[in-house]
Amino acid sequence: MNDTRIRHVRLFRNGRNQAVRIPVDFELPGDEAILRREGDLLILEPVRKRGLVALLDSWEPIDAALPEIEDQPTVPEDIF
Prior knowledge:
There is one protein chain. The chain has about 80 residues and is mostly beta strands. Helix content is about 10%, strand content about 25%. The chain has a domain at about 10-60. The strands form 2 sheets. Strands 1-2 form a two-stranded antiparallel ribbon. Strands 3-4 form a two-stranded antiparallel ribbon. A hairpin with a 2-residue loop joins β1 and β2 (about 15-20). GO terms for molecular function: DNA binding. Keywords: Plasmid.
């Protein structure tokens, strides 16, 4: 996603750390983020959940009709 919206934000001190207020329309999901520096830029990214459950949660439902499958009973086999 390449979002070109620009906002001016305020920097402030939080103890010995510098902090920034993130406007509501720029909020990141979750409670963790990754901060990295590229030259003069600071890039803030959400930490993506990993694993099968997170992957399945990210998928959109399928609207296509699935074919009917006739459920045949198993045929017993004499193995002795």
